[in-house]
Task: inverse folding
């Protein structure tokens, strides 16, 4: 069921003067004015789909696009699914950091990962060999209350008790949550693919209608608090599709889904302050 | 009023200018000798350097130098037993990886940056010289070409591979080095990360690339790997981006209530400070300050996991590796109502410094006795690599303190010195911290270092010497007043203490040789 049908009230937000509950949305000001979501309709979060996102870092002048990632969900059975994640972070000298992961997940509220393979490298193109010993392939798994991270030589074990999720699988999980009926979800975060951050709590936050270039979006938000992460807000549309994520100084915006493309600007401006990266050369791809 | 010059007059001839890509040991020594009045023959011989800690043919330890940016020394949870006040950061963070590093390594708790600003501090770490000497007295200035950086020095005298990954910020107006061209760091190969000045974006690249490099190492020759992380420096953009512009003054933006850190006891203070300083006025309520502090500690936890990833890779290798962990400076966090760094207070000047090596280093030591500074890193790492440090080092080798089997010297320095905001000077003795600021004229940006066109420095002679301008000094008794609340500089009972610290400054600065050839691209 669409969340829009379940919600009794929504409010259109003026991002320039948004109130307390819309604090995190102000990081998107400028992006939303130029943003055109992919032309999409109904969405089955439990099915097979793929989504591509633009990555931005916030700067006082607005934000700059610095990378991209793709999520590809493959439904398997009622117990679980596979999530493929491919990330590219633009770097210097024409290089990027490339990450790929294939994650076997449970169909639970937090998309808890069961086992995964992941690799990372610095290269100019995805097909290039790793530059200067920067490539590495590892595996991860959670078994018997332990997080196991290993490579072909050895495996690291760290205690992991209770509910848990992962930085990337959370992006899938919030698309299956039931909106305002979602109870607070305490858990331990597996940050990136190999690092633990305890004491997290994901909770439903609020609903807003945000004007975008192509009209407006009805959005529901979830907020995540916990160790090692600047509070993160996830916004899903009325069909539960994840549209925006904002964590501190970093923003993700949905750019394409199932082959249909929207429009994410390379940068966007706000009216606040100078750009600390201007002329620094650090924004070069 | 006397017209004493701050530094000994000197002239560096064009023939001693060091060009990084045709470097030779002789050119470094010649440059150093020329400015110091020494002849080349007075410098330690290469043979002597090689025999100091073993022959060059023996396998040397790998060296991993991990740098964070703007990390307060008290923001490591493992130091809570030392930093007991609830306003210290260790009470508000979870840092299991840094805690373990400290448990297994040797921590200096009286550790100071030589300049609490990114570029100047890094110039001191990588050369062993003071910022006024490297020419990097502000951000976005390149190192004086006459002064070798750590990579160049190791390139000349060792068979170490030298790899740099992450923030550099002492080449000019850029942060992250390229793999070639004018923005490559002389002496280092580059793991090319960056693309944004934000730690949230670049630090995963740094820790992944550095740990992969370590994991893939074949062990045939030792390496010097610098993993230079950006966070918790992102907090700088919090103030620019999120304060009054994006939250209302009383708004607990994350609705955290008592989970928001408490304000420090020196949040309210009443004394005047050396010229140009003052509290930050961009936040309009205690709540905004506490939100700021909360997010800072999350960035600290983020750094902790990146250090953990690198350390896991090192531990997996189980080979002979030395790790040094530090930060370029601290963070204000509302202490004296400051944000960021720049200023003379302890929160800005104190930095973590941990030396780790299961083979070489005494584990679990919290050294509260010895005053150390980040100019000590260069001579320490040179010693581990079995070579003499470059000429005119301002720091000292820490190895006699940290090594399991070393014989510590009976005497150690009684003071450390730091520069701040170009014209500010700190002298820290065991009990006191004294700060002053020279009067100056001219433009604020880069006025205090001569360029090769010969333009003179612009200190106003005598003002710093005579201290006639009030308020120009701060004096704190750190044993009684660790939060630096009571300025004693104008108290007649402390006149002799002030006089003693002025003299220490004069004697120290008489040694220093201002940089002349900065601003490399």
Result:
């Amino acid at each position: 069921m669409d969340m829009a049908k379940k919600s009794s009230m929504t409010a259109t937000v003026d991002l320039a003067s948004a109130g307390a509950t819309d604090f995190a949305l102000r990081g998107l000001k400028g992006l939303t004015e130029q943003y055109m979501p992919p032309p999409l309709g109904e969405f089955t979060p439990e099915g097979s789909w793929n989504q591509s996102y633009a990555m931005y870092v916030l700067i006082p002048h607005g934000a700059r696009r610095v990378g991209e990632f793709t999520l590809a969900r493959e439904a398997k059975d009622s117990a679980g699914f596979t999530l493929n994640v491919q990330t590219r972070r633009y770097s210097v000298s024409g290089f990027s950091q490339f990450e790929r992961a294939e994650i076997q997940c449970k169909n639970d509220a937090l998309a808890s990962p069961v086992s995964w393979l992941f690799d990372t490298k610095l290269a100019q193109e995805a097909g290039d060999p790793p530059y200067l010993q920067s490539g590495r392939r590892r595996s991860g798994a959670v078994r018997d209350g332990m997080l196991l991270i290993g490579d072909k030589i050895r495996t690291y074990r760290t205690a992991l008790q209770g509910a848990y999720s992962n930085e990337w699988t959370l992006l899938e999980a919030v698309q299956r949550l039931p909106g305002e009926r979602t109870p607070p979800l305490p858990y331990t975060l597996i940050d990136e693919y190999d690092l633990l951050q305890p004491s997290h709590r994901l909770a439903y936050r609020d609903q807003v209608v945000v004007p975008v270039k192509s009209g407006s979006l009805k959005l529901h938000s979830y907020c995540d608090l916990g160790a090692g992460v600047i509070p993160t807000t996830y916004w899903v549309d009325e069909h539960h599709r994840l549209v925006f994520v904002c964590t501190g100084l970093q923003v993700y915006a949905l750019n394409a889904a199932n082959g249909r493309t929207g429009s994410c600007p390379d940068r966007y401006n706000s009216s606040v302050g100078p750009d600390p990266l201007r002329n620094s050369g650090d924004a070069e791809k | 009023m006397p017209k004493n010059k701050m530094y000994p007059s000197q002239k560096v001839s064009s023939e001693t200018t060091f060009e990084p890509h045709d470097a030779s040991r002789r050119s470094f020594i010649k440059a150093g000798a020329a400015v110091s009045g020494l002849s080349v023959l007075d410098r330690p011989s290469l043979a002597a350097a090689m025999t100091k800690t073993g022959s060059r043919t023996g396998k040397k330890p790998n060296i991993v130098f991990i740098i964070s940016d703007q990390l307060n020394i008290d923001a490591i949870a493992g130091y809570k037993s030392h930093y007991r006040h609830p306003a210290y950061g260790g009470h508000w963070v979870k840092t299991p990886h840094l805690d373990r590093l400290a448990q297994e390594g040797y921590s200096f708790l009286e550790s100071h940056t030589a300049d609490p600003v990114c570029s100047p501090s890094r110039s001191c770490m990588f050369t062993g010289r003071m910022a006024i000497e490297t020419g990097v007295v502000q951000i976005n200035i390149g190192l004086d070409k006459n002064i070798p950086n750590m990579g160049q020095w190791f390139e000349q005298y060792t068979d170490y591979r030298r790899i740099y990954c992450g923030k550099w910020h002492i080449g000019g107006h850029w942060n992250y080095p390229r793999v070639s061209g004018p923005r490559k760091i002389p002496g280092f190969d580059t793991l090319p990360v960056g693309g944004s000045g934000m730690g949230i974006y670049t630090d995963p690249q740094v820790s992944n690339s550095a740990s992969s490099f370590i994991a893939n190492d074949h062990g045939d020759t030792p390496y010097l790997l610098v993993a230079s992380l950006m966070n918790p420096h992102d907090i700088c953009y919090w103030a620019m981006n999120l304060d009054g512009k994006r939250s209302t003054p009383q708004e607990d933006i994350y609705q955290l209530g008592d989970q928001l850190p408490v304000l420090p006891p020196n949040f309210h203070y009443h004394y005047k400070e050396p010229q140009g300083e003052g509290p930050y006025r961009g936040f309009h309520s205690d709540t905004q300050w506490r939100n700021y502090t909360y997010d800072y500690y999350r960035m600290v936890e983020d750094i902790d996991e990146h250090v953990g990833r690198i350390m896991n890779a090192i531990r997996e290798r189980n080979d002979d590796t030395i790790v040094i962990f530090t930060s370029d400076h601290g963070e204000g966090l509302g202490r004296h109502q400051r944000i960021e760094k720049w200023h003379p207070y302890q929160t800005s000047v104190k930095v973590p410094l941990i030396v780790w090596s299961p083979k070489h280093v005494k584990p679990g030591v919290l050294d509260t006795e010895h005053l150390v500074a980040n100019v000590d890193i260069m001579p320490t790492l040179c010693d581990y690599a079995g070579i003499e440090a470059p000429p005119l080092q301002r720091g000292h080798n820490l190895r006699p303190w940290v090594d399991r089997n070393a014989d510590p010297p009976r005497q150690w320095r009684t003071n450390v010195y730091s520069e701040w905001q170009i014209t500010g000077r700190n002298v820290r003795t065991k009990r006191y911290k004294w700060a002053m600021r020279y009067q100056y004229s001219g433009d604020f940006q880069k006025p205090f270092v001569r360029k090769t066109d010969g333009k003179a420095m612009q200190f106003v002679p005598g003002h710093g010497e005579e201290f006639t301008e009030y308020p120009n000094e701060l004096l704190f008794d750190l044993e009684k007043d660790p939060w630096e609340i009571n300025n004693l500089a104008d108290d007649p009972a402390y006149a002799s203490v002030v006089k003693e610290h002025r003299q220490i400054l004069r004697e120290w600065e008489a040694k220093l040789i201002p940089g002349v050839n900065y601003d490399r691209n």
